[in-house]
Each structure stands twice: as C-alpha cells, then as structure tokens.
Amino acid sequence: MTNTTSPVARVHRVRKSYGDTTNIVHALDDVSLDVHRGQFTAIMGPSGSGKSTLMHIMAGLDSVTSGQVVLADTDITRLGDDALTELRRRQIGFIFQAFNLVPTLDVRANIMLPFELDGHAPTESESAWVAQLIQTLGLSERTGHLPHQLSGGQQQRVAIARALGSTPHLIFADEPTGNLDSRTGREVLALLAAAAEEYGQSIVMVTHDPIAASYADRIVFLADGRIVDERRRSTPEQISGYMLAMEKVA
Ligand SMILES: Nc1ncnc2c1ncn2[C@@H]1O[C@H](COP(=O)(O)OP(=O)(O)OP(=O)(O)O)[C@@H](O)[C@H]1O
After folding, report:
1. Is the CB of 49 under 6 A from ligand 1?
2. ipTM
3. What is the pLDDT of residues 130-155, one digit of tens each?
4. Does residue 23 line the site of ligand 1, with CB under 6 A?
5. Nearest partner of 161 among 136, 141, 183, judged by Cα
6. Nearest CA to ligand 1 atom 10
7. How far is the CA of 201 from the centre of ligand 1 (A)?
8. What is the pTM of this model?
9. Could you please report the per-residue DSSP string of 12-51?
10. pLDDT, tens digit, 9 for 90 and up, residues 27-51
11. For the chain, which has fewer Cβ within 10 Å, the N-terminal or C-terminal residue?
12. 47 CA from centroid of ligand 1 (Å)
C-alpha cells in the first residue's frame, strides 16, 4: 500500500494522564501514529501498556491530556460532543467487546442500523457487500433473531457485519476474535484484511494474539504508554519473538 496521501487518522504527540501530581499514571506518553487509507494496523503490548486508551482516543471516545488527533482533516480534540458523535457515526465502525447491539432489533436491523442512522438506503453494491458479510459470517439463518437469542460469538459476528457493512473509512476493533472459535476467527481476520485491501477501509485492531496480528500490514508495539517498536507484516512466530524480546527488555 503506497502512503502518498494524507493519513486517514493522525495521532500527534498525545499524552493521556490519570490521577493528580502525587499519583500520576501516564497511560499514553508522547505517542504519535499515522494511519493511511487501506492500512490494517495491529496494536500489541502488555496489559496496561495503553492499547485501549490509544484506540479510544483515536476514536474520539476519550479526551487527550495534550496533543492532537486528526481524523480525515478534522482535529477531533477541538470538536464539541455533537459534532464528534456525527463524525463517529459517518466515518467510524466499532468492533468492541461490549457489542452494543440494540436488543429490540433483529440481526438484519442491527446490521443495517448505520444506514438507518445516516438516513440513506444502501446502494446495490452496498447491499451485495452486506449479503456477502452475512453469508461469510454464517448469519444467514439468524437474520430474524434478536441478540439475546444468539451466542456470544454470534453476537460478535453481528457486530462485525454492522461495523463493516456501511464501509466506514476507519474501523476500530478490540480483540475482534476473542469470542470466536479458531476457524471463524480466521474468517473474520480475512474479512478485515479484505475490507482494507478491497474497500480501502483503514483498520486499527488491538490484540494479544500473534495469529490475529499476522493478518495486519503492520504491528505497533506499546509498552508503558510509549510506542517501542513497529514492524511490517510478520508471521505469528516472528510476532511472538518480538513480544518475548520486549518482555525481556521490560
Ligand atoms: N480511567 C482510568 N483511571 C485511571 N487509570 C486508568 C484509567 N484507564 C486506564 N488507566 C491506566 O492507564 C494505563 C493504560 O490502560 P489501558 O487500558 O489503555 O491498557 P491496555 O494496554 O489496553 O491493557 P489490557 O491489555 O489489560 O486491556 C493502565 O496503567 C491503566 O491502569
């Protein structure tokens, strides 16, 4: 993927601190990161290294202590709540552990919700992509079910179809394969990779799993709130090696 265009997301010298001067935690300490169109980025690092904080800040779900986050050409650190909500709805898809499915809507309606909220009916190609997602994610028999009638893994797949369906520019995924069996997990990762390659969607995925990270174009390693390493696409074995080396240094 060539990086000649301006980034879809830019994190510039971001700090995020919690607590007061006597008891301060730097969850992020001077982090800068660019995400380009069609790029699939994995974020890895030990527990407490700042992965979730970074993803939440990039998605406008959390504020910075200092620094800048620019999505498309908008500095979101200066946006009000309403404008931020609007930007999130139009540009961002979320695949989070708390699936946030609407309990009163069936599977199809949940998947179509981004179109509904945006007030536009899907085009023919969008409908075809949604149909492909439903099929690939093994949800064809479930489209009329309510979320509580589904298993955890099935709910996660609905959340994935919803996040990818309207082809938002940016997708944030927090351990997207955490609840899935290994075959479905691999299919979901292949879908994410296809969304990046074929639809130019940019994906930022937090994971502890070297196999999941091996689907990404690059892997960013965090430790103690700082980016300590970055690698191009690597095999699961190589990624395990980088993680081990990081632990030895720590
Ligand atoms: N609301 C908060 N108040 C105080 N400290 C916080 C808060 N949220 C996060 N932290 C601290 O910031 C640091 C980074 O947390 P974060 O959740 O981003 O880590 P993580 O890498 O996602 O961890 P894990 O892999 O365990 O989910 C941790 O030391 C955590 O305790």
Report:
1. yes
2. 0.96
3. 999 999 889 999 999 999 999 888 88
4. no
5. 136
6. 27
7. 27
8. 0.89
9. EEEEEEES-TTS-EEEEEEEEEEE-TT-EEEEE-STTSSH
10. 999 999 999 999 999 999 999 999 9
11. C
12. 8
